[in-house]
Structures are given as C-alpha cells and as structure tokens.
Design brief:
Elements: E1 17-22, E2 28-33, E3 37-42, E4 47-53, E5 59-64, E6 70-75, E7 79-84, E8 89-95, E9 103-106, E10 112-116, E11 122-126
Antiparallel strand pairs: 1-2, 2-3, 3-4, 5-6, 6-7, 7-8, 9-10, 10-11
Length: 132
C-alpha cells in the first residue's frame, strides 16, 4: 500500500487560497487567493518568486496555458486576466460582465480559453496567438 506524506509547505498569502495550478513542466506552482493576488512558487525550492496583483477582488480560478508561457486568472471582480509567466506582468484582460469566474481552462492548442461561473454557463474566448 502506498503512503502519503507531506513533502512541502508554502506560506505567503494574507488570506485563504482558492485555487492552485502547476505549470506544465511542474517547476512552478501558482496559487490564487481571496487576498486578490496570485503567487508563483518555485516548487523545488518552495520559494515565492512573484506576486501578481491586478484583480480588485478574490482570485478563484487559475490555469497555465499548455506551453506554460501564460497564466490565466479569474476573479469575483468579473475579469479574466492573462499574465506572462516569464515577465510576470499582465498582458490582457477579458471583461466578464454579470458573472464571476469560478473555473478556467485553456484548450490544448492554447488559443482558446474557457471560463464558467455558478450560473451553469460556460463561455469561450479566442485569444490572440501573440499572447502565448
């Protein structure tokens, strides 16, 4: 029988964490928080390498693009934001009026992003290929 043992612990957000996503290569872990920030962590060293701030309310959903170059974050503030992982800056924002993103995902080709909320509606956006 396999055993489960904690192998790491990451602490830096001021409030609760609502979402997690590993980069495709497993080297970076992103955490989205009620404190309105996203933290990027170097998994091997368990070190915070960046704090991304731009949402005006809690971050409830995050996802890496398939190539690992872009991170998407969805928030209660009715936006989906796209971040350059290497540059650690916001590269685009998608307005999602009248709904709050509760889940987010990239299509395998990295050109489409999907988001949904608690209303039961899934929305898709085509994103510019120059972003990732």
């Amino acid at each position: 029988m396999a055993t489960q043992a904690e192998i790491a612990s990451f602490t830096a957000h001021k409030l609760g964490i609502a979402s997690l996503s590993f980069s495709p290569d497993g080297q970076i872990l992103a955490s989205g928080s009620v404190d309105q920030t996203i933290k990027l962590w170097q998994v091997e060293t368990q070190t915070a390498i960046a704090t991304l701030a731009g949402h005006t309310q809690g971050v409830g959903a995050i996802a890496f693009s398939p190539d690992g170059n872009t991170l998407a974050s969805g928030s209660i503030d009715q936006t989906i934001r796209l971040w350059g992982v290497a540059t650690k800056v916001e590269i685009a924002a998608i307005s999602t009026p009248h709904w709050q993103t509760s889940a987010i995902a990239f299509a395998p080709d990295g050109q489409t992003i999907g988001g949904c909320d608690e209303s039961g509606i899934i929305r898709l956006w085509q994103i510019c290929s120059s972003l990732n």
